[in-house]
Amino acid sequence: MRGAFMTSIRTFLGYPYPLGATWMGNGVNFAIFSEHATGVELCLFDSQGRRELERIQLPERSEHVWHGYLNDVSPGQLYGYRVHGPYEPEHGHRFNANKLLLDPYAKRLSGRLVWSDAHFAYRTGSPREDLSFDRRDNARGMPKAVVVDETFNWGRREIRPNIPWEDTIIYEAHVKGLTQLREDVPKELRGTYRGVAAPAMIEHLHKLGVTSIELLPIHSFVDEARLLEHGLKNYWGYNSVSFFAPERRYGSEQIQNAFRSTVAELHSAGIEVILDVVYNHTAEGTISGPPCATAASTTPPTTGSCPTRRGSMKITPGPAMR
Question: 296 is in which domain, residue-wise?
Answer without folding.
Answer: 165-314
